[in-house]
Amino acid sequence: MKRLKFCLLSLVALCCSFALLSCSSEEEGKANVDYSAPAQVTDLKAEPIAGGVVLSWKKSLSANFMYAKVEYTDTKGADQYVLISAERADSTNGLMTTTVRGFAKEQPVKFSIYACSVKGSHGDPAVIESTPQAPNFIKVLDKVKVTAAPGGAHVAYTNDYDEDVTIKLVYSSKNDASKRDSATLMAAPKSSGSSYVRFDHGGDILSGDCQVAVSTLDVAGNESDPIMVDLQGVQTISQIDKAGWSVPGYNANSSDGTIGYSSQEAVGEGKTNGRVACLFDNNLSTFYHSRWKGDGGALPQWFIIDLGKDYPFVQIELFARQDGNGWKGQKGHQIFVCSDKDAIDKSDPTSWNWKDCGEHSFDPSNKKGQIIDLSTYRVTGRYIKVYIGEKFRGNGAYAFLSEMNVFTIK
Known about the structure:
410 residues; mainly beta
């Protein structure tokens, strides 16, 4: 028993010794950390750029300097800050830099740079004031041109700068101001182009005399003052009734191609899905799918829709597959149109005089209708052929779409 008590007392003493040693080491470690405010940064400079300011300074010479904190007030009046680690300082001269963007106005901005320790302790900041130059997104507005198109407008733009710019259109009917809506499109860096914007408002499409407020925005959401554009006589368009549509050589019970399509999936997608006819059943939950059970379903794929008679086309609207697999779909289509008189031998579409209406990009992850503008092609036709080449391969090996609408001049 005495021997057991002696062992227990020895164990307790040993544990206490370790505890004291640990506490002593911890206190010693704490004592070596300097939490005081470092000395100020020096040689602070500011260089205005379009929509921003480039700041530079020499890092604090204090050994406990861990990071610099840059404080300023943005265009919207909100206080902002940026943290820059001391490790980003140039190893030869101690120079630190940062670029602050997102200013929409040419007004002076005060920047305060604090030298901070590991716990954020700091003294008075080094302060400098600078006026950003006119932002690039406002300059892009000068190169936006809006012209009337059937059921909407063509928007031409040029973005000469290395930043994304959003073009915003707020359109309204001049005869009824309550008919008002908006749309946006992206002008990528160093790009130019033209996009069609349809004047959708609820279930209607505006026409007649319209007014458009055009503005541009940067990535921070700053918006330019709008310019007003009056559009005279926007043509009325309407969706073609699908009741008379069909597919040449259609066979709902087979996945094999016919004269009207390269393939469809009539087995693996249930009683309805997968078939070409799903493209015009007015049901977004169904979809066409190229064949995947067996051979013949990989790209390229194509299908032909017979509208029943000739129409003057202005646009085609395609909807991506709406379920969780839609993102795997193709990223573009090539459109061909053929009139009734140019389809002489109805049993052989390869002999028809097809008009090539160009290649058009497509976003399979976008569930909304995506418009292919055909108004500039000035085509009249009965048959539409959609070709999905290998170049349009998406994240999957097959082609699929949910629905197809076609619009004509009313």
